[in-house]
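Input record (one chain):
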Amino acid sequence: MTSADPTSGILDASRPLGVYVHFPFCRARCPYCDFATAVREPIPHDGYAAAITAELAARAGWFRGESAPDLRSIYFGGGTPGLWRPQAIGRVIETTRRAFDATGPVEITVEANPGEVTAESAASLCAAGVNRVSLGMQAFQNRLLAAIGRQHDVAAIATAAQAVRRAGIDNLCADLMFGLPGQSMDDWRHSLDELVALAPEHVTAYALTIERGTPFGALERAGKLQRPDDETVAAMYVTAHEVLQAAGFEHYEISSYARPGRRAVHNTLYWTGGAYLGVGASASSFRPLVDGTGWRFSNPRGLTTYLRSAAAHQGNPLPAKLERRTSEDLENEGLWLGLRTCDGVDREAHARRYGCDPLASRERAAAAQKCVDAGWLLVAPDRLRLTDAGFLFADEVSSRLWLEI
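The corresponding structure, as predicted from the sequence alone:
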């Protein structure tokens, strides 16, 4: 094995595992989207499932130690995996469970768009083993949905949520966006009220991000995208926090709220240093090693390139990106990711994993004190965590605490 071989090194088998399956196909591309997507008809349902199951077979061994790992989650993201034929999704679920000898409970999530979820498709997803659906609701005003290129109207949101419930899937995640072009504070409050009335178990509320290579990016550079200013966007974030907490949701990560016991298992693996295997076009993986280092690698972003590479290498596409992260890299990342959560960073657990207290560095301790003085960070003997105000400056805090290596 070479130094650039992601199978080299001894796996840290104590870490729980998540599997991410990227389904790139969409009916239309939203003007803000920078994800790896493909708009094409017909969708190769069975052909893509065959590529995914072949990749799982090729790479599952990379994430197995002397015994099978603790598989906690299978997440179908995209793209629009709600468009994938449920029987194909079921085939991938069965292959994944078998590859990791998973007999216990596993959170299995499928992202879907309102307008594409029917009573029949929801029932088929449930029968395939899906127990969590993430609906991309985004807004409750038809004019805003049209402005951001969504392919559903407001009426479809409640219809889809009802279909999921009636199918027997009792874990519904609702995605909602703020800072949209033409969105007022009254629009945002109305969307929050409508969302709360649907009683989801989980809410992801996040600000629109303008990516350079998108149509919205071009409009922004031309000065033609009229969005709420930064102060209004910050006020929308605070309003979401107030409304959702008052409705009984626990704020547990910058953009994430959940009913008690309904935190997203898959995303929590990312934030807490779990292992994850990503399969499909553009999917990323993290393979942690017992020496405190780890491999990060990702598949080719383009669908055609991914499929050709997978076919040429017995289901195991050549990584488009591959790097071995040092223990210092991962310590930085562990602090940054931990501070995204409301639990913050457990100092003792951090020291056990990375070999040092997060404030052991004089440079970082001084930077942390400045964040405390600004009202952004709380430092206790056992834990570091952001204040409510600090979540608005999370990137700034992380950049200040990031140690140059």
